[in-house]
Amino acid sequence: MKVVKAELEHVAVKPEQYPVNRLPELALAGRSNVGKSSFINKMLNRKGLARTSGQPGKTQTLNFYEINEILYFVDVPGYGYAKVSKTERAAWGKMIETYLSEREELKAVLQLIDARHKPSEDDKLMYNWMKHFGIPVILVATKADKISRSKWQKHLSIISKELDREETDPLLLFSSETGYGKEEAWKTIQSHLQL
Ligand code: GTP
Ligand code: MG
């Protein structure tokens, strides 16, 4: 997809702050530091539009990026980040849960998993939780540039097996560093959203 317009239009911590123009939404979920904000920037060709950081816990609100006036990417705070207080974590958890389980405009979730490692317990919990709610998931294995090509297939099969992936949930490989997988990701998104 050719991105001609991409802006951060809404920042929300509660439903009253979500957009009201009823465009389809696609949310990014994944462990802190897995590359959610970097994924958004690469897909939109906008360096620095979504704030990224080597420090986990950068994204702390629901950030709605409107694309070509036809859909939103929703950047979501990452899970599994230890350095926040319990109270803070509980509040984030509630904010994310409310959004993912109740939002009608949410058409699918892009769940990002680090391609280098086996899915964590949190990754599995997240995937199963979304399956429980019947949310379509597009799995994206990130940081592909950090493993050699000869190992890609093996790492993908491990991720697929460990998550007990449903066949209808695609599993893609991606690198925000090189742009690998970008076209495939757009194709998959467009077919899921029927754009
Ligand atoms: P939170 O907002 O904390 O949940 O993190 P996030 O998932 O948004 O991660 P972010 O995009 O901020 O990236 C975290 C770090 O990983 C940054 O230093 C990025 O440059 C790096 N990174 C992200 N994607 C890739 C990738 O595909 N390849 C490589 N080599 N580094 C990446
Ligand atoms: Mg982020």
Automatic annotation (TrEMBL):
<dbReference type="GO" id="GO:0005525">
    <property type="term" value="F:GTP binding"/>
</dbReference>
<dbReference type="InterPro" id="IPR030393">
    <property type="entry name" value="G_ENGB_dom"/>
</dbReference>
<keyword id="KW-0131">Cell cycle</keyword>
<dbReference type="InterPro" id="IPR019987">
    <property type="entry name" value="GTP-bd_ribosome_bio_YsxC"/>
</dbReference>
<dbReference type="GO" id="GO:0046872">
    <property type="term" value="F:metal ion binding"/>
</dbReference>
<comment type="function">
    <text>Necessary for normal cell division and for the maintenance of normal septation.</text>
</comment>
<dbReference type="GO" id="GO:0005829">
    <property type="term" value="C:cytosol"/>
</dbReference>
<keyword id="KW-0717">Septation</keyword>
<protein>
    <recommendedName>
        <fullName>Probable GTP-binding protein EngB</fullName>
    </recommendedName>
</protein>
<dbReference type="InterPro" id="IPR027417">
    <property type="entry name" value="P-loop_NTPase"/>
</dbReference>
<dbReference type="Pfam" id="PF01926">
    <property type="entry name" value="MMR_HSR1"/>
</dbReference>
<dbReference type="InterPro" id="IPR006073">
    <property type="entry name" value="GTP-bd"/>
</dbReference>
<dbReference type="GO" id="GO:0000917">
    <property type="term" value="P:division septum assembly"/>
</dbReference>
<keyword id="KW-0479">Metal-binding</keyword>
<keyword id="KW-0547">Nucleotide-binding</keyword>
<keyword id="KW-0460">Magnesium</keyword>
<comment type="similarity">
    <text>Belongs to the TRAFAC class TrmE-Era-EngA-EngB-Septin-like GTPase superfamily. EngB GTPase family.</text>
</comment>
<keyword id="KW-0132">Cell division</keyword>
<feature type="domain" description="EngB-type G">
    <location>
        <begin position="22"/>
        <end position="195"/>
    </location>
</feature>
<keyword id="KW-0342">GTP-binding</keyword>
